[in-house]
Structure prediction request, 469 residues.
Amino acid sequence: MTASVSIKRGVSLYCFQEEYFHKRKSLEDLLATCARLDVRGIEIIGDQMIRGYPNIPDDFVKQWHGWMDKYGLTPVCLDMFLDWNKYKGRIMTQDERVESIRRDIVNASKLGCGVIRVIHDIEPEILERLAGDAERHKVTLALEVHAPSDLDSPLEQRLIALYERLKCPYLGFTVDLGIYCKRLPRVVTARYLRDGMAPHIAEFLADRYDHGQLSAVDKKGADNEKMVENILKMGGREQDIYLAFMGTHMCNSNPRRLLDFMPHIKHVHAKFYEMLSDASEYSIDYNEIMPVLVEGGYAGYLCSEYEGNRWIDDAIEVDATEQVRLQQVQLKKLLGQAA
Amino acid sequence: MYDQFMIVGEAFKNVVEDGRVVGFQIGVRLPYYRGIVLSLIGDTDLFVDGERMPRETMTVTVDGKTYPLSQLENEPDAKWEFGDVGILTVRMPGGLAAGDHTLQLKMHLKISYVPVGFSGSDTKTLTLAA
Prediction:
């Protein structure tokens, strides 16, 4: 697998959010953890671990680069959000949205991040208006393809048309590998039961998901309502509907479809819900996905993104460090890198 | 997410002003994975021993500044940082009696990129010191 050397490993600090939330570890502590785990590429959510974001003080920028030097790390990606409903009684104008992302671009540039993970509810027209800024700052805007959408969903297809028309190398996608989720994570169903969902409803949701019969999988909007209807018919509570929406939105798309759009794939979130002790993921088959990325000549970062945390934190203390360590063991193995 | 960490018991106490008990307060964390501006905080309900506290009697103190709960939609810039403990104060002459109280806090956050936003609920029985 000689081509694999061009794929780089990284980690989103999102993985370690519990430790930060509980103030058990500071941002610097987490960066030290990444270095200890031998993951050198760093992705950060501005709103999560940079106080005052989007206003980043110069002191922080200096300290950030100091940490990168101290721990031998490389800034890779800044994750942005656009709270377009934050003003009372109105939604943001397109100009305001463009301005907000323009600020993220400047911030990414200051932090040394060559990629921005763009949240998925951004219209193509907005990215088109920002292409020049992206190019000027050498910051790639990579809209996140995230379940329940995949590369064949309407917005993604409109974006592909835009990318092919503009041929701007600074626009593209972040692909979240949660779109290749073969079965419902068992950490989700276990949580359902602890939260009081009737076992037959939890089993129904897992079974429907695993057989490709939930809306997220076949992308038929009407199935969302059918799911609600079914849950209610089975005696489910209102809370069960919320839980179902939050827990079953992954999809089971075909990873080989990536090969058709490879030039547009700028960043990848190596999503995982539960790493098993043999360094494999319970519901996402990395043995199938990684060869596709290698075959397609993907040359960007693959950043660990742990999302099982939110499903187990009621029962046990989340050990993200061990989970990330296990995933990185698997990624190294699949990339043909020494353990 | 983070539901069971929303109510922070250590901050539970009656509030005394000029020698009089004017209400009580609890510590609160948001059930979400990033910091947000206050205007994204939607319906917030606190029940004490099953009784819903009127929203207009509540204020939230974040980063040293206090805002009426009913006015949060006017705050598109002030930020409640991820993991920070804010103080929810309920104006209630006389406050709560010493002893055990069951508190339930429900919050809805208007996060625009998901159709249902984010919701959280936490119930804790806390002891108010005499």
Observations:
- Chain B has one domain: 3-128.
